[in-house]
Every structure is written in C-alpha cells, then in structure tokens.
C-alpha cells in the first residue's frame, strides 16, 4: 500500500534523479560524444524538474509562505551550482557569466513569470488580486539588491571596468545576504499574513476548495527531501559535463556570450514558471508573485555571496556591472513593476506590459 502511494505521488521523479546520478558517474571526467551529450542534457532537464517537484512536495508539507521560500532557495541552489561549474571550467570569457545569469533571472522572474501569471489570473477573473503590502516589499527588496550588485559596479571608480574591488565585493556579498535574510524574516515571521493568498475581499481563500491534494505525510516529505538532495547533486555534476558543449554551441552560432547566462536561467526557472502559472490559474496570484519575486531576490541574495567566496580561487576578473541597455530594461521593469503592485490588483494589460519588456530583453540579448 505504501509503495503504491509512493509510486502514485512520485513516479518518474524517483527514477530520473537515480538515472541522472548513474549517468554522472559514467560521464564524469570523460569527453562523451554528441549522442551521449543529448541524453545527458535530457537527464539534466529531468533532474531540474525532479528537484523542483520534490521541493514543491516539501513546500506543501510546511505550508505558505514557507513553501514559496523552499522553492526559491532550491531553484537558486541549482542556479548557483550551474554558474560556479561553468566559471570554474571557463576562462576570461566567463567573467560576466554571474552577472548575465543573475540579470537574466531577474528579467525572467519580474517580467516573464510575473507577466504571464498576471495575464492568466486576470483573464480568468478580470483582475489578478494580491496583497500590495507583501508584494510591494518583495519588489522593493529585488530593486535594492539589483541596484547594489548590478548597477553600482558600473559607476564605482576604485577598480577599472564594471567590477568591484575585493573589499567592495565583500561588502556587496554581506549586504545582499543581509537584505535577503531581513526579507525572509519579514515574510515568514514578522508579517507572514502579507504573503498569503487573497480573494477579491482581501481574505485568504478556503483551503478545502482550492484544488490542492492533501498535504504529504512526514515520511513522504522526508523522502522528497532526500530525493531533492540527490537531484541537486545530479544537476551540479551533469552541468559540469555539459558546460563546454553549451559554450561551444553558443560560440558556433555566433551569439553573444550573455546568451549562456540566459540559457542557464531559463533552464533553472522553467519549473518555477510552471508552478507560478498553476498558482495563478487557481486564483492564487499572491503565491505566483511570491515565487517570482522570491526567486529574483534569492538569485541575487544567495548567488552574489557565493560567487564572492568562489572568486577567492577563481582566476580572472568578475564583471558585475550592467551595460546601458540592461540598465534601461531594469529601470523600465522597476517603473512598470511599481505601478503594477501599488493598486493590489492588475488587469491583463499590466501582465502584457511585463511580457513586452521580457520579450525585448530576449531580442536584445541575442541581437544587442
């Protein structure tokens, strides 16, 4: 009976991480052929999806808003692992990889995921309804983190180029982590109710009628936690195996190196996007926004400190400052985001504007 329940709940999400780890053992330290690389890429994608699935099971067990936090942190761990593995295996060409990936994650979350979620929710109920206090504080945190870590390096003068000095980088890492932890405390302890789903009347929806399955038991949640760790190991290892082919393919296509960062961010945030859209379809726009903004701030607040520590043994410069085009897109995202969040409800137009900004980001990345 228990085994049937486990198979029903998990299914492929048990097999894929195990197979991915086996593939990692067989390909580590080797130069596999194209066919093997395609299989490894499929397993890498499957491991990412499995990791976020198991994070979602654990999240369902602990409830909101802790659930959104678990998903965001799990996704960010994968992102950081991919960035570090590519930077370790690369050279000077990876100097801006962390910046490109983090900025891509910000654009995907605050425009792509937010825009799509708002359109889905607003088309269904005329307005997408959420708590402006909680969502506004999340957006403010994202803006602060993005400005401190991605904009300021372009204007500092102590180091040449869009870089921080060692001292400035250390401060940025500590400040980013501190700001992120303050938000987590606000979201989970001090003002937890600001981040719970709301209906048109501003109250939490009836959990018994939201379409959710029953929360998993303790043993099932622990199983998911173990499989989550296995999936993350598989993602880190297989990303290392695929790192060179990704860069080679981008170079062969004549695309800017920033495309590598976009590929990483799209790969990692795809499951998060699906989860957010599902939440929006269930009239839980607040959860969708928690996922989007939470992933954006975790991407910055956890990636920058990790990269700062990794820079101790990484060779070459670490470029963090955005270019003028990226800063314009970030500024536009901030303005539209604030105007979207302040009323506490959004029309489909608001989501469409965010999607237009996201599409512009993709086009300008490929053809700057």
Automatic annotation (TrEMBL):
Q: Which domain of life is it from?
A: Bacteria
Looking at the UniProt entry, the stretches that span the membrane are 12-29, 35-54, 66-90, 102-123, 135-156, 168-186, 221-241, 253-270, 291-314, 320-342, 349-367
Q: Which UniProt keywords apply?
A: Membrane, Transmembrane, Transmembrane helix
As for subcellular location, the record says: Membrane
The record's section on InterPro entries has: Alkaline_pH_Ca-Antiporter, NaCa_Exmemb
Q: Is Thylakoid among this UniProt entry's keywords?
A: no
Q: What is its main location?
A: membrane
Asked if Transmembrane helix is a keyword of the record, the answer is yes
Topology relative to the membrane: Multi-pass membrane protein
All copies of the Sodium/calcium exchanger membrane region domain together span 35-188, 224-365
Protein name (record): Calcium:proton antiporter
Q: What organism, scientifically named, is this protein from?
A: Nocardioides aestuarii
